[in-house]
Amino acid sequence: MARPLHKLSAATVKAAVPGKYSDGGGLWLHKRRDGGGQWFLRVTVHGRRREMGLGSINEVTLKEAREQAEHWRLHARKGIDPIKEREKQRREAERNLHCLADVALDAFESRKAELKGDGKAGRWFSPLELHVLPKLGEVPVSDIDQIDIRDALKPIWHSKGETARKALNRLSIVLRHAAALGLDVDLQATEKAKALLGKSRHTPQHIAAMPWIEVPDFYRTLEEPTTTNLALRMLILTAVRSGPLRFMRYDQIEGEIWTIPAEQMKGRLGQTSDFRVPLSDEALQLVDLARPFDREGYLFPGLRKGVISDMTMGKHMKKAGLPFRPHGFRSSFRDWLAEQTRVPREIAETCLGHVAGSQVERAYLRTDFLEQRCLIMTEWARFVTGENEENYDDF
Q1: Is the N end or the C end of the chain the one with fewer CB atoms within 10 Å?
Q2: Is Endoplasmic reticulum a UniProt keyword of this protein (predicted)?
């Protein structure tokens, strides 16, 4: 015979004195002396009686308690322990929360097309991965506030100011991405955190660059045609960044022009044009000298696989007792242009692959000054190799 259901009423629940009252079907009300009360359900699963709480009478109405009871009785009739099933569902729900780590990865994936080399170098994501996600990665993004962000970045705010700034910038992007997903986030949290952190005491350290007057002497020390020496010589002669240089391929060279794919050019995001680099006679000789090291079409392959690393070139300079870094040769070249020539600024900046001028100016000025840059790189090579040590006031 089925047990009668719905024996209680809302009025009974409210007026009940302390004690336990059955609503039927295993649903019970436990009324306490302080006036509060608790719903609980008794079921039998595999011959074992189970008792699970369904919530306080102040939060769960009689109707809602009955609906919950019926839901969990159905599980019991199927031989499923309702207490274990509810705990399982709770754990799954927690796993499905939009934690910061998941949203950050999703934001990174959506931005890869905008990043150099599809973000494979990891530079966009690493500030978050190293300094934010270890502390906040498992926190639901909707719960993150300025206090959380401040506490996460405080250890590096003054000691690694630039890294902290990048982490804050990336986090702001992630929060905007979360908002676009429809999540409830505080888009001002990063700005509030910045206000709490105060002004950073960190002083940016510029990359140490060799004075241009010393470049020829250093260039002469690279005479032995090793991969490292050849790469450093080409880096000096072309004034490009080490990334495109390390991945330089023979099939990118046509005649006296080396064409760097647009996606390898930092600071030229959104542009579909490649960047042409004029090669001097000295640079073309290096291309021939590098052929014995050719692996998979790369001029400067690594010792075992891939291409030569930026660290390898840096170690060479450090071993020579020099305080300068390979990237600094771009500054050496730019200083030489400024102090020894009358080359217009827009041409000088184009030599470095920089996007010069305003957006409107660039819309009308489509040239890359290739002809003028050919002359410049030829004169730079003559200076570097010691063929010409004169001033270039008329150049």
Answers
A1: N
A2: no
Average pLDDT of the chain is 87
**pLDDT value, residue 310:** 83
Radius of gyration of the chain, Cα coordinates, nearest whole angstrom: 34
Single pTM value for the model = 0.56
152-171: b (≥16 Cβ within 10 Å) or e: bbeebbeebbebbbbbbebb
- 356 band by pLDDT with thresholds 50, 70 and 90: low
pLDDT, tens digit, 9 for 90 and up, residues 157-174: 998 888 999 999 999 999
Residue 350 pLDDT: 92
Q: What share of the chain is helix, strand, coil (3-state, %, to 5)?
A: 50, 10, 35
If one counts every other C-beta atom within 10 angstroms of the C-beta of residue 234, the result is 23
Distance CA 152, CA 369 (A): 47
Is there a contact between 190 and 171 (Cβ–Cβ < 8 Å)? yes
Q: Taking the CB of residue 142, how many other CB atoms lie within 10 A of it?
A: 16
Count of C-beta atoms within a 10 Å radius of residue 129:
18
Domains in the chain (CATH in brackets) are 10-95 (3.30.160.390), 100-197 (1.10.150.130), 212-384 (1.10.443.10)
CA 200, CA 203: separation in Å to the nearest integer?
8
Q: Which residue has the tokens 């010792």?
A: 303
* Cross-strand bridge partners of residue 99: 140
Find tokens 């799954």 and name the residue: 92
Structure tokens at 176: 């905007």
**Contacting residues for 109 by C-beta, under 8 A, at least 6 apart:** none
Question: Residue 141, class by beta-carbon neighbours within 10 Å (0-12 exposed, 13-18 middle, 19+ buried)?
Answer: buried
* Residue of higher predicted confidence among 394 and 39: 39
- Asked if the model's pLDDT at residue 181 lies above 80, the reply is yes
Q: How many CB atoms lie within 10 A of CB 217?
A: 10
Average pLDDT over residues 95-112: 84
> How far are the Cα atoms of 108, 115, 133 from residue 123, in angstroms, in the given order?
11, 10, 15
The predicted pLDDT at position 354 comes to: 83
Residue 28 contacts residue 21 (beta carbons within 8 Å): yes
